Amino acid sequence: MYVAVKGGEKAIENAHQRLAERRRGDRAQPELSVVQIEQQMPFAVARVMTEGSICDPTLAALAIKQAGGDLVEAIFLLRAYRTTLSRFCSSLPLDTTAMQVNRRISAIYKDLPGGQRLGPTFDYSHRLLDFSLMAAADDSWAQGPAPVGADEARAEAADPETLSRVLQILEREDLIVTEQDDGAAPADITRDPPSFPCNRSARLQSLVRGDEGFLLALGYSTQRGYGRNHPFAGEIRVGEVEVLIAPEELGFAVSIGDIEVTECELVNGFTHGADEDARFTRGYGLTFGYAERKAMSMALVDRALQADDYDEERSSPAQQEEFVLAHCDNVEAAGFVSHLKLPHYVDFQSELELLRKLRTAGAPQEIPA
Amino acid sequence: MNAHAVRDGYNFAYLDEQTKRMIRRALLKAVAIPGYQVPFGGREMPMPYGWGTGGMQVTAAVIGADDVLKVIDQGADDTTNAVSIRAFFRDLTGVATTERTADASLIQTRHRIPEQPLQAGQILIYQVPIPDPLRFIEPSEVETRKMHALEDYGVMHVKLYEDIARHGHIATTYAYPVLVNGRYVMDPSPIPKFDNPKMHHSPALQLFGAGREKRIYAVPPFTDVQSLDFEDHPFEIQRWEQSCAICGSNQSFLDEVITDDKGGKMFICSDTDYCRSRSHAVDQAVDQAAKENAA
Fold first, then answer.
1. Which of A164, A247, B258, B291 sits between 20 and 30 A of A297, alpha carbons compared?
2. Mean pLDDT score of chain B, rounded to an integer?
3. A354 vs B173: CB contact, 8 Å cut-off?
4. Is the ipTM above a cut-off of 0.95?
5. Is residue A196 within 8 angstroms of chain B, CB to CB?
């Protein structure tokens, strides 16, 4: 008998096999290694680590390889692995002021202590396809001459600095609201289900894991008038920070290594505090690895979600906490959208039966006034 | 029954024991307050959200080595996602699986309740996409939690009334809201309303898991479950003029199967185990009759 869409284990097995073939591509070509992805696709790795919530470039590269370059799928793989890990310690708060900075820019001061450091950036490159990258890779790279200026760049990179924070300049003059640590234990959105309204720490956690594209669009919408908050890029810094843990039995903090993070602090339109003095407000973004677009998007949305704190009317999508946080997770969103591919013929049959019944009953009745 | 080996490097039923305890605590609360949606710390599962992660977490929390598991999707054991979830639990628990409703101690389901009445001691675990029946009337969780707390369900009746005014019928055919234990309005998950009466006073324990929405709720055995309706528009279930083309049943939920591209179609039971056991019984009766005739 003909029964479509019901498929057994054999069909699933074949589908896995065909997916593996598709991922591998032409076998005449050498296979990508995980270390190549880790080394040569750092931006993909950074995004997958950030939204996948594990700071591990090798695992992120493995997930990207296994997902055939589908980053949302790779994020999902990493999250599913993450849930199986036991948690033995919480780190101390990262001290990003002590960051070994590879890139640091500020759009609010022309020059400032430590200066502007461009570091590696797409910002000023002309987006012209570089056909020289199409040339078959050969082994001469090891011996070949370094690009012009590379020596200076390398010297600069080899000498990362610790720089003071730009927003501290404003804080010292009491021109900006200060971020205060109230000492409360941070929320853990991976353990406790969200309840709205949620606190800032739960909000920031959701945003870090949130889909870059979704947050980019929401951040952009605030710039186009849907919940304007007059942002300036106060400071963006990328570099290595030390991760410290303080195990109870030890009684003091020990370093467990350095990780690369991107941090964005926005300076936003001012508000009048209880003392009637006007101060700038702020938005905050942080990611694993070098992921500047995400950090900026996050900071824009973080500020938009502070509407209640400053008695601003919540009139736009980016200001609606429940809307933003309930929909920003791409693992949740992709899962629920894709479930439409599952069979729904029982529900559909019910609708079909109703529609036929309505048709038999004749024209729809008027709604009584 | 001995459990087979669990896949290397993973705990029995995938989740760690602390997570299972957390889910069991939520389940106990859910059983204590029938129909109330209990928030729980839902975990990521290795299947996508929307594909049964809530049901799987509940199953993982209650399954033991002696359980016999049945998994259905749209009533059938052989739909791809049911096959996949069954394979997952076989791999990560080693428990016995079955397609026979009567033999299962745990049944994880999507969109159906088996036709064969469930027995005391069985647990039916529903996969739930949107746990709040009020969600499509009021999108905000903050608001709907208040409405449940205050038993403020007027909007639900207004919605059903508007259906009647507009279409002459209540136009909800699946995920049809029910009142549980006279207190909470509950979403029975997207089962056809045909299945709603089976929930009422069922001897089996019914557990509901919504993974993406991180909610668990339950209907304990022998609990009142009333489908919402009006005195002059009583609740009705779907009926077919046809009978199942395979087993001849006129009591079961039928799927319409298109047999060609010229409009040909047939109707067959959506519950494959029910259909198979009936057609098996019919075959046996026919054989028996043939033997008696021959004798």
1. A164
2. 93
3. yes
4. no
5. yes
